[in-house]
Amino acid sequence: MTSLLSKLSLPLLQLLFLLLSFSTTGRAEDNITINVLSLMYSPDVQEVEVDSLNAGFDASLTARGWKTNSKARVSFIRPPSYDTPVAEFFESVVKESEGKLMIVFGPFGGPSTMWVKGELSKHGAVSFGPLAFSTEVREWDPHLYFISVEPNAELLALFRYAVVFLGLPRVGITYLKGTPSGEALYEFALEISSMMGHELCGAFAAAGGVGADEDALAAEWNQFVETRPQAVLLFAPVRNPATEWFIGRIVKDERTRQMYVLAPSTSQGPLIRTWRDALYASNVSLNDGQLIITGTIPPSNLLTLASVRRFREEMDNHLKSNSEWGGFSKPPHFTINEAISDLMMTGWLTGEILSQALHSTDVLTDRTAFMDSLYRQRRYVVDDLVVGDYGNECGEFASMQGAMCNCNQGGSAVYMKEVVDGFRIEPLQRGFLAWGASQCSSANVKVYAPLYGVFILIADSYITERSARRWYEGASSVPADGSFEDDRLFFHPFRRKLSEVAGDLAQLVDNRIVSAVFGGVTRDALRLPNVTFINPLAASPIVGKFRRNVLLLSPTVRQQLYVIAMHLSNASTGAVSAAIRSKRAEVIGDVLNKSLMTFDVALKSMLLLKESDTLVDHLPSSGDVVAIGLTPPDAHAIAQYLQSRNDRRVYVLFSEVAQLYDEFVEAFNATPAAVVSASRLVFATNLPHWADKNTESDTVAMFHAYNPRESTWTPLRLRGFATARLLRSIVPRMKRISPSLLVDFFYTESNIRVDDMHYGPYSDVECVKGRVTAANRCETNFGAGNISVWSMSRVLDPRVPVLSRGVTPSLEYAVMDGSSLSPSQLAGIIVGSVFFVALAIALCVLLCLFVFNSRDNNRAPREPTDPVTLIFTDIESSTAQWSTHPELMPDAVLAHHTMIRSLIMQYGCYEVKTVGDSFMIACRSASTAVELAGDIQRSFLQHCWGTTVFDDFYRNSEMQKAEDDDHYIPPSARLDPEVYRQLWNGLRVRIGIHTGLCDIRHDEVTKGYDYYGRTPNMAARTESVTNGGQVLLTYAAYMSLSTEERDQLDATSLGPVALRGVPEPIVMYQLNAVPGRAFAGLRLDRDFFFEESEDPTSTSASEHSSTHMELSGSAQTISDALHSLLSTFKAPQRERLLVPYCERWNVSLPRRKGRVWDDAYCEEVIRRIAVKVGHIAEHGARGMSASSGVTTQSGSSLIIISCNPYLSDASPKQCSRVPVSSGREVNNGMTENDAN
């Protein structure tokens, strides 16, 4: 027994000792007292505000029984009076706290905070939640533990709110001048405004001190008001006399009475009191929302937050049970004075942070250890609020891995509030700014210009307003990428009646930032200058002229009708009819008629209806019909029509189906017969199916993810979603945003791809001024492609296949049929036959000698992922050369074409197109393109032109310019003749080269390849600035050469060159193809890359659309003569006669859809010849007598005979006519409003 006890005695003694030690430790912790000294007061602040802060802090710790989790007790020491000097009170508590952990709550105000910094460091203490609106105290100091954000963050949030959410272009600021904090805030405001692309409009610099010079203030005020500020950032202390005077003047002055006032959180109480007094003094009522105030903590009435709800509960309990705070009204005091309750919550949140900081047992008796614990990458979570991270000093490598270094600021969010009726404060849902815990402060936050989008709601058009709302619902469902810095796309509603849209929108643009306009529009609105419209919704179909500022993403009316006509050519069993209800029915009818004729689809009849007519009553009894101009009742009417006629199909515009989506779905889902008939309602669209659950479209998959309710899966919502996705991909690439910059982006990029949606090419090439366009279509503001044909059955069931696969319509139209010969044409047979036959035979002989074919598709670059090098060429001063030497230019241009085509074949490149005297050439490699360009210049130098007139012309032009401009130095006119012959000879050609990716397409009409996008645009712009005989390479083309190739290349850098339509200057290199040549300065003053508008050798509007313009007298005579001569020949014979004549006189052939020339095509070619030759003849005849009946141009075999008025009627219009049910006739020629 004794041995057993002896064996157990040692373990028992150890256990007893351990229990005694635990008991001692627990009692020791119970005896630990932590002194919390409240310096949260100031004699300059109202007592109720100080009480609110301290009461909130008190409430938080009271809810925990003034104990920490380690059972240590907290002693809250408050000053005996708020008049007690901070230094005196601090020193007294320091003495009482010797040997204890001492923490400071506060202080309040910049001066107190600046003073206490040194004292805290001396005593090893830390201050929790100091409130100081001063940038000076916000530097790294471990003794100051800030809970809220810094003043700069509030300034950033307020300026962003004014620009992004209020859309105000003119924002000013008032600040306290002559103080470090005030000047620092002003400089930061300038930095923000510059970063967002909206400079401050003005500043009111308030002077410090107790007095204010009235005259100086008035002068400062007048200077400020002259800038017409719409809002002011109030960052001067409200208690400052100059600031109070400023606030009073805002209310008194009618020019500023409606101005927004945006102020930081520390100004909340004083601002409301001062504003109330100013309104009372001027007998003016409060404007709701005019005062905008930030919050560094959540507003105390933001009940959606769990932290706010718990605060209110604990605060209520504390005030009910604690008589010390009897000065506060009992609940519901939160609904009486939100400013006071916000201060309470500030104190309460500080108490919550302190309670969590005191959890660690081992640091409660050592001030240094406690302060170190606060910066151990510390983060606090209070219900749904996050404060921190706090971090101590650490190295750069730790920072790179995510450590927070030198951070004593825990706030990372700014809340927005507004003052409303009764001077109550309401939280604002928009404007909240947060940058997360990964950044210590807002110092590195970048906020760039927003895209401020206005979407128009037509109040008196139910369908248009519903469509715009659905579009907006889809657009607003696109989330940002999680970073507010890139969250720069904002939509704002603008609801007006139809008649008010244009006028009110113009006024809005003058007073608000409007980056782009979406939603419903009117024709008058589209004419507004300096406004960018993106894919607007029209109440009725619009076929309008090209407007650079209207960017279309959906298929246009023209595109839809073109694709429908293409489908009809394969599916139709006969002629189709048309019923069009619109104010612009004739214009739409022209487009439809032209589209159908292009694909040999007969148009049996066209009915043009008034807007008041009932569409279904006028649908034909037989055959397919194209119906345009639908209203809600038409959906059910068309469904009934198709059910009653099983062999009929109705073709409609998808843009109308999308707007009447509910009506069409309901009509064709009504009965089984209606569902069956849905297969015969046909339209064209480029959208993927919005309701396909098994979609392969990335866009639709994301659309479903962010819009999970199937009832929201509609085409307009998907269109809005896709538009927002497009804009969100564009905005990060633009630091500054304006209507013009946004438009420039589209035309510069040309082709834009987002997810699986493609937009473009967009082109602003001005065809009416020039020759070679940068892409096949010029002035193109629509970008929809891959347009497929659907039936309504596919709308109801995504599993139903499309009727025709997606295509991108070329919009190349066949030439209209011509009318019969007129008497004037017959009268010209004798006059023109002898001359023309002789000339035609000579040209045919020359054409037979020209056997080169450089348009071999096997040589065309076809891989879209491989860069293409494009060459653009053009003869310098061809206009003047043609008018001066018309007898020599045909042969010279023929030699020009022969040499270039020979070299294209030699180097294995591809002739994309030849228009007039200009070439567009595509090469697979940059080195090949450079060698080809150099050889072109050397070939022209070595060619025997057989005359010196071209050289004489260029030298005389240079000398004339030298006489007119003293600063101009002729590059070649003054050279020694022998030197000149070594450097110059014959025609001079400009050459521009650029390398990049292209949108490569195969043209079904020409059977060749064409190149779209930014690369051809840049190549054309490069050629436009060169001089004759010069070769320019862009930086991209130059760098596409290998290092060895660049070393061997004789090229000179010209430095950055500003090109029209290109945001940034482009570095250019000059290829020294002929060493020794000197050139004048680049042609930067020229409009884009075109020759003069009167250039008869260019591919002008008259050439591309000769059927749509009246012929001049000379041109008409030539046309009459050619018609008379060729009327006895069949079409193939006419082709053989006309082709060499076009080559001889440099006339470009129109596009055609077949291999055989028909009568209409011959008609168009004759008109083009007449336009060009007539222009040249008139140019040469200037200065001669206009009264002569017969004019002979010297040196030419061309004879011009005036039209005989006794033998000729008015010029016949070159268009066919279609029977119209209403008795009117529709002209197949396109109108001036039909330029798209």
TrEMBL record:
Q: Which residues cross the membrane?
A: 826-852
Signal peptide range: 1-28
Can you cite a GO biological process for this protein?
intracellular signal transduction
Family membership, please give it. Belongs to the adenylyl cyclase class-3 family.
List compositional bias (Polar residues) regions by residue number. Answer: 1224-1236
Q: Which organism is it from?
A: Trypanosoma brucei brucei (strain 927/4 GUTat10.1)
Q: What keywords does the record list, in alphabetical order?
A: ATP-binding, cAMP biosynthesis, Glycoprotein, Lyase, Magnesium, Membrane, Metal-binding, Nucleotide-binding, Receptor, Signal, Transmembrane, Transmembrane helix
List every stretch annotated Disordered.
1217-1236
What is the protein name stated in its UniProt record?
A: adenylate cyclase
- Role: Could act as a receptor for an unknown ligand.
Principal place of residence: membrane
Enzyme type, top EC level:
lyase
Point out the coiled-coil segments of this chain: none
Entry EC number(s): 4.6.1.1
Query: Where is the protein situated, by its record's location annotation?
Result: Membrane
Q: Which GO terms describe its molecular function?
A: adenylate cyclase activity; ATP binding; metal ion binding
Cellular component terms (Gene Ontology): membrane
Against Gene3D superfamilies, the record matches this protein to: 3.40.50.2300, Nucleotide cyclase
- Does the record bear Lyase in its keywords? yes
> Which parts of the sequence belong to the Guanylate cyclase domain?
869-1023
